[in-house]
Design brief:
The structure holds two protein chains of two kinds. By secondary structure, chain A is of the alpha+beta class. Chain A has a single domain, classed as SH3 type barrels (Roll). Chain A has one helix at residues 57-75; strands at 5-13, 18-22, 28-32, 43-47, 50-54. In chain A, strand 4 and strand 5 (50-54) form a beta hairpin. The N and C termini of chain A lie far apart (40 Å). Chain B contains 19 helices and eleven strands. Chain B has helices spanning 10-23, 34-42, 45-51, 63-66, 69-80, 89-92, 101-106, 117-126, 143-151, 167-177, 189-195, 201-207, 218-233, 253-262, 292-295, 297-305, 316-320, 344-347, 352-361; strands at residues 27-31, 54-58, 84-88, 111-114, 132-138, 158-164, 184-188, 211-214, 239-241, 263-269, 275-283. Classes of the chains: A alpha+beta, B alpha/beta. At the A-B interface, strand 1, strand 4, strand 5 and helix 1 of A face helix 1, helix 8, helix 9, helix 11 and helix 13 of B.
Chain lengths: 76, 362
């Protein structure tokens, strides 16, 4: 139920508050974006037809480095 | 999956597992999310962690599973009275006291499966002469989607049967009931996307429970477990956020405002639990025109006064309270399978019995 899938916004229809989301596997579907502030090119997490959060690409890219750092700190 | 958000690093996984092993612990953790359980079982992390001294199990973290037979009966009664009833697919096969939405659909009633609430509104727009009711189940992840639709002026033949529930109050209840002891909690990433990390703080403060909000990749869960181990080793009880690429401390402010404006907390029963104080969401009066319980009060009156029992032999209640694993239930894989489910935990793809059956039993 709480499953949410990441996708990239390729087109926004601001009037209807809907956007076309590319899920990176060849699937594109419309989702409601009224719960988030987004622009074209943003990555969002989609649940039950709604984007529920904007994904932080920078944070995602540094996640594994952060984990490595935490593991080595825990060693001390 | 969009690649940048899919975290994979075999060496790092091995390093985390080694660290947990070296800590030489014997601990029990609970999580409350079907997607976490899926990752744990699918990738064999549950057995791996067990070898490292960590037992990890699912509590009441499946919205479909904790929906009560009474709520299912309300939908069945509405369908039998001629309404078009709509529901998430996961809910269709969940047995009420005797019947499910799917079984009465087969009897010819108008029950339609939808992907989300907007599909149900569309059905209402296409059928202006009919009443369309949407079964609004789900935790804080899903409730804002209901709120958002009610904001956008749906047609007046549309209403919802509100069955939304909230996680922090259920966690408090499970701790206070004291039946199950655990050393740490892995908090659900997508509920936390909406509510943030702050609503969990009182659990750490008042009950000294270490908590980590975690994502859904195998590496997220392992890292979450290691963070809990570290807290315990250092005698700490904090709320830590492993899923920073998605979850902000304040959550999704826009979604939280919608929740606050559309709903108010209410006491509600969870399947397998008694009534849990303030753990449900009901529609505020200004949205009562969309409240199926008010709109069709006369049709639902009999259901409100009826007592409901669980299916015979079903131990989903104890499972949802974290007291049992699927293998402790004599019906598991025998009388109860995904094809012939007795209880909700075997129906829902997020139920722990269904997950165990899919990956291990089959």
């Amino acid at each position: 139920m709480c499953l949410a899938i990441p996708g990239k916004i390729v087109e926004i229809d601001t009037k209807n508050q809907h956007a076309t989301i590319d899920y990176g596997d060849g699937t594109k579907r419309k989702a409601n974006v009224s719960l988030v502030d987004v622009k074209k090119g943003d990555f969002v997490l989609v649940h039950a037809g709604f984007a529920i959060e904007v994904l932080d690409k920078k944070e995602a890219m540094k996640t594994l480095d952060l984990f490595r750092e935490m593991l080595s700190l825990g060693e001390e | 999956m969009i690649r940048v958000f899919s975290l994979k690093d075999k060496k790092l996984v091995n390093d985390i597992v080694l660290k947990i092993k070296e800590a030489n612990v014997k601990l029990k953790f609970m999580h409350v999310c079907g997607t976490h359980q899926d990752t744990l079982v699918k990738h064999g992390l549950d057995s791996l962690l067990k070898k490292c001294g960590i037992e990890i199990g699912q509590g009441p973290g499946c919205p479909v599973c904790v929906t009560t037979p009474k709520e299912i009966e309300e939908m069945l009664v509405l369908a039998r009275s001629g309404k078009i009833v709509t529901s998430f697919g996961d809910m269709m096969n969940v047995p009420g006291e005797r019947f499910s939405l799917r079984s009465i659909k087969e009897d010819g009633h108008d029950v339609r499966m939808v992907y989300g609430i907007e599909d149900a509104v569309k059905i209402a727009e296409e059928n202006p002469g009919e009443d369309v009711v949407f079964m609004a189940v789900g935790f804080e992840t899903t409730a804002p989607t209901t709120g958002s639709v009610l904001y956008s002026n749906p047609p007046n033949n549309f209403s919802i049967l509100c069955c939304h529930r909230t996680i922090p109050q259920a966690l408090k209840a499970i701790i206070e009931m004291g039946e199950v002891k655990f050393d740490g909690l892995i908090e659900p990433g997508h509920v936390s996307t909406i509510i943030g990390t702050k609503p969990y703080e009182y659990l750490s403060k008042n009950y000294k429970i270490p908590q980590v909000v975690a994502g859904f990749e195998p590496i997220d869960i392992l890292m979450g477990c290691w963070m809990l181990v570290e807290q315990i080793k250092n005698n700490k009880a904090l709320v830590q956020n492993e899923y920073k690429r998605v979850v902000h401390p304040d959550g999704n402010i826009k979604a939280k405002e919608i929740l606050k404006d559309v709903f108010e907390p209410c006491d509600i029963k969870w399947r397998g639990f008694p009534v849990i104080k303030d753990s449900g969401l009901k529609l505020k009066n200004k949205f009562q025109d969309f409240d199926a319980r008010k709109k069709f009060e006369y049709i639902l009156a009999d259901v409100q006064n009826k007592k409901f029992s669980e299916p015979e032999g079903c131990r989903c209640g104890e499972l949802l309270r974290g007291l049992l694993t699927p293998f402790d239930c004599p019906l598991f894989g025998q009388a109860c399978t995904p094809e012939t489910p007795v209880g909700p935990c075997m129906v829902s793809v997020e139920g722990s019995c269904n997950i165990e059956y899919r990956y291990k039993e089959k």
